[in-house]
Amino acid sequence: MPDALSDADLDLLFREARSFNGWLDKDVSEDQIHAIYDLLKMGPTSANQQPGRFVWCKSKEAKQRLAAHAMEGNKDKILTAPVCVIIGYDLDFHEHLPWLFPHTDAKSWFEGNEEGRRESAFRNSVLQGAYLMLAARSLGLDCGPMSGFDQDATTKEFFADQPRYRADWICSIGYGDRSTIFERSPRPDFDHFNQLI
Ligand SMILES: Cc1cc2nc3c(=O)[nH]c(=O)nc-3n(C[C@H](O)[C@H](O)[C@H](O)COP(=O)(O)O)c2cc1C
Question: Residues 139, 133: contact at Cβ < 8 Å?
Fold first, then answer.
């Protein structure tokens, strides 16, 4: 078994992967959505908190409900995608720690610490969203992440029955139409934003 991904795999995941604005008319199945989740859930979160809460908008009706809260320029990027997932987080993720991190009483670390929970839920759900994009790409799919929408309205619309959940960002998933993307923006060399000490 190789102990590293091939160059072609790295192209698929990083070097050739792009953020897509338009989509080919090709479905993403429920099995593919489950396959993405089954990979992303394996990515590390602190104390295995798993605070991400995901709403996979696949039906036309769900995408319309989501697009209604998006910036004008993002509406079509939601409506024409096979699926658009809302990445949210649970401010009360600690309630699940007794089964998610069973070997110690991690729930007690967060009780009465609303600010600590918010910080941790945000940090770790964003990580889970990154795992989601890499999982989708590794399965041959493309992504179009977006934050240009009304988070509060989307929270109310999709998490009405879960008052401790918050919507954070969204990501269209499908087979990207390369004619809809512009030239790659610059990526800084190592020396620009790194220190190796
Ligand atoms: C969290 C996040 C939010 C973004 N929000 C939007 C958005 O609202 N609308 C949009 O068209 N692109 C959005 N983008 C896309 C970025 O502009 C794009 O990922 C970046 O320019 C890199 O493009 P590339 O992956 O094609 O190189 C967002 C990306 C991320 C990761």
Answer: no
E strand residue ranges, the chain: 52-57, 83-90, 142-146, 165-174
| Cα–ligand 1 centroid distance for 35 (angstroms) | 24
Where exactly are the structural domains of the chain? 18-173
Does residue 159 surpass a pLDDT of 70? Answer: yes
Q: Kindly state the average pLDDT of the residues 105-129.
A: 97
Q: What residues are in contact with ligand 1 under a 6 Å CB criterion?
A: 18-19, 74, 145-148, 169, 181, 184-185
Task: Write down the architecture of domain 18-173 according to CATH.
Answer: 3-Layer(aba) Sandwich (3.40)
Is the overall model pTM greater than 0.85, yes or no? yes
Tokens standing for residue 194: 């790194």
- CA atoms of 126 and 167, how far apart (whole Å): 11
In tens, the pLDDT along 4-39 reads 999 999 999 999 999 999 999 999 999 999 999 999
Closest by CA position to 147, among listed 18, 8, 19, 12: 19
d(CA 144, CA 156): 23
Distance 21 CA to ligand 1 centre (A): 9
Instruction: Reduce the DSSP state of residue 185 to 3 states and report it.
Output: coil
